[in-house]
């Protein structure tokens, strides 16, 4: 299978990263995160085995401390402190991977982009592909020299509930839900307690796995276009991506960036916010 072309602002291969390990202007981040109830501890996994030189980006900790929703986007000052402590300096190239293949790393990339960082890419296939290829790993404590980050927020790529409701009422944007089809249809319970089943009325479903190949890498351009078309998404119009908690919506945002689609945003609260309220909920179709 032909590999995706390397692009340091969206997606890079394991070979691209391997050739650059040790570069002082490169920061590798493990952005692993798992759904509630998975029984997996990403910090423990990171301590046991990681790409050499990587630092752990804790998605639940580098978040808005004033929100009761899960891992909402951090305020600029919180982001700056956290990534500076991880060794990030303005102008560095960032590569993010995760332990699932291509699941939560795009959320970390989106967070950097929200703070105005463009030189940030996801590792295609993530840590599973890295290990499958027999590439080096390390474990133990991970020390990092202090960095210095200067956020330049890009709020256009962040959508709140009001923006989503307005988009649906006016047709200003398509709302695309990245959750699995059974959750979108309301056929199974949500993994977080207290949330209703179903989806935002008027939204369409493109499960994030549909933009990935069976080996966990992202589909090529033709495959991505076909996936969006099959879901009824018009790539000539604006898009707001949503999911369970703003995690896999970032996979769709990454796919859109790969296609050169620039007019899209991510609904940060996603179903964790919409599904707990008293607003309208749909089941089965759109």
Describe the protein in words.
The protein is α/β, with parallel strands linked by helices and 286 residues long. The chain has two domains: 11-153, Rhodanese-like domain (Oxidized Rhodanese, domain 1, 3-Layer(aba) Sandwich); 156-274, Rhodanese-like domain (Oxidized Rhodanese, domain 1, 3-Layer(aba) Sandwich), CATH 3.40.250.10. The protein is 28% helix and 12% strand. The chain has helices spanning 14-20, 42-48, 76-85, 105-114, 126-132, 161-170, 181-185, 221-230, 249-258, 270-274, and strands at 11-12, 26-30, 55-56, 93-97, 120-123, 158-159, 174-177, 204-205, 239-242, 264-267. It has a five-stranded parallel sheet with strand order 1-5-4-2-3. Strand 7, helix 7 (181-185) and strand 8 form a beta-alpha-beta unit. The longest helix has 10 residues, at 76-85. It is globular and about 50 Å long.
Q: Pick out the low-confidence regions.
A: none
**3D shape:** globular
* CATH-defined fold name of the largest domain: Oxidized Rhodanese, domain 1
Radius of gyration computed on alpha carbons: 18 Å
Strands of the largest sheet, in order across it? 1-5-4-2-3
Biggest pleated-sheet summary: 5 strands, parallel
What is the strand content? 5-15%
Specify the structural class. Answer: alpha/beta
């Amino acid at each position: 299978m032909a590999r995706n072309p390397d692009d340091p602002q969206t997606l890079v291969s394991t070979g691209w990263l391997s050739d650059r390990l040790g570069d002082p202007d490169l920061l590798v981040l493990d952005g692993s995160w798992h759904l509630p109830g998975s029984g997996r501890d990403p910090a423990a996994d990171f301590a046991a085995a990681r790409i050499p030189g990587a630092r752990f980006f804790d998605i639940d900790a580098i978040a808005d401390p004033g929100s009761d929703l899960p891992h909402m986007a951090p305020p600029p000052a919180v982001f700056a402190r956290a990534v500076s402590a991880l060794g990030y300096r303005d102008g560095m190239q960032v590569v993010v991977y995760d332990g699932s293949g291509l699941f939560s790393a795009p959320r970390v990339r989106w967070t950097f982009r929200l703070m105005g960082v463009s030189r940030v890419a996801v590792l295609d296939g993530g840590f599973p592909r890295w290990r499958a290829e027999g590439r080096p790993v390390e474990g133990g404590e991970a020390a990092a020299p202090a960095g210095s980050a200067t956020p330049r927020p890009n709020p256009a790529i962040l959508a709140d509930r009001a923006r989503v409701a307005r988009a649906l009422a006016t047709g200003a944007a398509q709302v695309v839900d990245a959750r699995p089809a059974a959750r979108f249809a309301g056929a199974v319970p949500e993994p977080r307690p207290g949330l209703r089943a179903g989806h935002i009325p008027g939204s369409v479903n493109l499960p994030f796995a549909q933009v990935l190949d069976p080996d966990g890498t992202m589909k090529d351009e033709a495959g991505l276009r076909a996936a969006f078309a099959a879901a009824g998404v018009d790539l000539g119009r604006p898009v707001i991506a949503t999911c369970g908690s703003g995690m896999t919506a970032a996979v769709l945002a990454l796919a859109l960036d790969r296609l050169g689609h620039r007019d899209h945003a991510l609904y940060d609260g996603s179903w964790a916010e919409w599904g707990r309220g008293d607003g309208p909920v749909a089941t089965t179709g759109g």
